[in-house]
Here is the input.
Amino acid sequence: MTSDRPAEPIGSDAAVRPLTAGQTLRLAASAGVLTGVAEVLWVSTAISVGVQVRLSAHYVWMVTAADVLFAVAVALVLLALSRWRPRARSPRVVAGVLVGLAVWELLLLFESLYPAAGAVLAAGIGVTAARMVGKRVARTAYRMFPMAALGLAVIVAWLGVRMTLSLHASDRAALRALPVPRADTPNVLLLILDTVRAKGLLADGRYTVPQLQCLAERGVSFERAMAPAPWTLPSHASMFTGYWPNELSERWDRGLDATHPTLAEALARRGYRTGGFVANVLWTTRATGLGRGFVTYDDYPVNLGQVLLSSSLGRFLAGNSMLRKLAGHHQPLNRRSAAEVSRAFLAWQRQHDDRPFFAFLNFFDAHEPTFPPGYSGSLFWPGRRWTDFEHFASLMVGEAAVIRDKWTQSAEETDIFASGYDAAVRAVDAEVGSLLDELERRGVLRNTVVVITSDHGEQLGEHGLFEHNNSLYLPALHVPLLILPAGGRQSPISVPQVVSLRNIPATVLDLIGESPNEFPGRSLVPLWRTSGDGDPAAVAGDTAFAHLVGGYIGDDGRPSWYPVKRGREMFSLTTRRHHYILSGDGSEELYDWQNDPAESVNLAGREDADSLVAPFRGTLDAMYRVR
Here is the structure.
């Protein structure tokens, strides 16, 4: 007796019968949910064992949503192909492709496995899965598959909602726990212009961009401010704690620990509402430890780009230079513009204005990839093959394709690259002006201490070098620093002494009427504010220290002559006249940067070098014990 019941799509008698569009999409969505859950479990395990995972706090639902989108996209491709090849909708093809895709996505989580090798292995598993269609185990799986996926989807949605509500509840509880602030306490705004260097921006005590120059005319400008490191995380950590980078825990593979208090924690103890709003989702996220002390910390955006980059496949596709070229798009998919960061801060600032705020903003627009006028969205110069360029895309990063081997560029290409950087700096400058204008319109700026600086500079071909985090030359360390004390416009002051950004915490406490001795370093206030007939120029500047540790993921692709390749660590000391560099191999450089700003003549090679270099060696031996 035969049954009138229709054959199951994965059943033995329908192994090659085309699936309907609805069945295909349901299978794809189910496969995406299951893949997403598996990926979420892997990420959660990585977090639990201390891996610094660069994903949004909403990764549970973002990863799952991305994997569903990718699976459904593949299913739509199969449906489109089935118009010409009906077999593309057969259960075996659909099952094989979806299983292969899921396996490949999970294999992409392992950096040590080449993506192509993972694709071959996934294809083999997909073929095996296709051959199983029609067997009893396939029919059983088909019956359980949609319900299991639906149940997991509900759980993921519940966890996503719970996480969002938990974050808001945590912020509200932290805000309620703040002590009552002192009356008339000024606000504090720390604005970091990521990767903005002083060279080309500051000339003869004046800024070459309009908004910063306008601010310099109403505040204090530092002509020789030095970053304590040539890359983001250690420089921010130093600016937050007052300690030198080599005294802190942060490295390429780990964040800032809780050993030393941060400026945000100090201000929160004084009743400040603290908020961080960052665009650098590589090195300023909450996972790096920089969010400690902030009631609100806004790092990853919630948008489609961040959703796609939450998935291993999304990061792989976003980091593929050939696909980037075909798409004509090279920006990180989760890039936040300075305007977006400002909007988030301004919306937050309107809330709870009954207490002072401390806000930290990181603008990332001047960090590459930046695009010169006329080259919108493309990093591929005329006459170059796309194979000349490589991408940087590490696990959990999702960075865009960039020109890797810049040292092979022609002079013309270097000029094009530099013009893109300059255009980005001008755009950041304009946003700084817009942000402070809005605070002034709200009547907030007058009672706000504003500190504007950069975490490090950028190299645009000096010494044959590009970017940062690869040397301790001045283009990577010399940065702008502007301070607008609370109380409104004042006469412009230019400070010529060398100062280190590690003094920012002590300086901020001094400016709000608290003792600066809570943090290492010193307050910079005496450099411009003296009593009686005191001369600010008579106050000594810093011997600014900088530190760089090798081993960054991109170091292997750099040529052997790059400074960072000369041993594990590098150190430098900068005074008003000299800049000393000690490389990891023991080689030394000394430049009279007051008279030789390009650092073209190494005085450490002269016959009388020992007498010139000895004081710097002694300083390092006594203060930092690095030799």
The CA atoms of residues 282 and 315 lie 13 Å apart. The chain has 16 helices and 16 strands. The chain has a mean pLDDT of 85. The radius of gyration is 28 Å.
